[in-house]
Amino acid sequence: MYPDRVVSGMRPTGALHLGHYHGALKNWIKLQSELPCLFFVADWHALTTHYDDPGSIEANTWDMVIDWLAAGVDPSQATLFIQSKVPEHAELHLLLSMSTPLGWLERVPTYKDQQEKLADRDLATYGFLGYPLLQAADVLIYRASMVPVGDDQVPHVEMMREIARRFNHLYGREKGFEEKAHDAVKKLGGKNAKIYNELRTQFQEQGKAEALVQAKAMLDSAQSLSTADRERLFGYLEGGRKRILVEPRALLTEASRLPGLDGQKMSKSYGNAIALREDKESVIKKVRTMPTDPARVRRTDPGDPEKCPVWELHKIYSDESTKSWVVKGCKSAGIGCLECKQPVIDAILKEQEPMRERAQQYLDDPSLVRAIVADGCDKARKLAQETMRDVRSEMGLSYS
Ligand code: TRP
Ligand code: SF4
User: Most C-beta atoms within 10 A of its C-beta, which of 40, 94, 185, 230?
Assistant: First the structure.
């Protein structure tokens, strides 16, 4: 069994905002202490849509990595790297492209959606069609078991699973597989061998999913097997193939609960965002000028928090007593809107304080960031090279 591993990437869109923090980074930070994690800058993915404007990718990459570090992504726990610095991603993408049906790519929902949304760009390109396949290579090359993504990306992870399955089906067909699998079953020992065979029959003949789960758990804990034999037995359970690539599953990150200054989804392009490391004066000004319940024209007009985007921020940043102060004060016109906004301002500044601090050392000495990323690239590359050795060998491209 390959070890559990988490892989996720972000396109280098420049400075991140608090929506990214509440939507994705907080989750990364939780995961990094639980499992081995690889987090990377998807710079090639940025080119799929902005191939005519590559000039800002590099600066955006460093800004984004500083934001990750500022938010608390910890390079002593997680591996941070840049996609294009691990060219094995491109090699796997190419090899996978040989057997990927065009229809799979064309029916990924983001394909048409994005073409419509970014109508000012010509996205009738080979690279853009291949976006989710490159993403599949990003993940499969680390034999990752989990991919934390937002709900828009779930179809991409589904496709990764299909790609891995197809690859194993096409190339996991070793000579003498059946005999090797039978020998491996024997190595499980009499009792376990019998259980394995029974569970396999239950799954294959009656489609019992539970039997598959049990058999996999047993293989996981079987000490007597080599990795190759274990992978054979995993493959033998589900069909007659060796498992070369691993099917990952999506870890659904809840959409950020943090709305933008106007109550819409927070997004740089909507102009309603607060940057992760926005300066204090600007945070204060942005919140102070936020729209409120339009019914509160004058200070003496009562309002309704449910009609006010400031209330949405209180829901995230304020404790119960502050929230009831808001509801009461708003409905009775007992407090003014500026007064109401102050606890939100204080909470955002407090949340950003450690981020600004952590970022400062990297801004003072950019070589620290370069070193972290160089180290991450080395680590990622070693893992990627291991997988590619297997992939080439199974495809008959070893030339040894
Ligand atoms: N497509 C992802 C996004 O837009 C970024 C990405 C690229 C990614 N490769 C990945 C995410 C691999 C997870 C795993 O958010
Ligand atoms: Fe919004 Fe607060 Fe003003 Fe009510 S008092 S409208 S919740 S800002």
Answer: 40
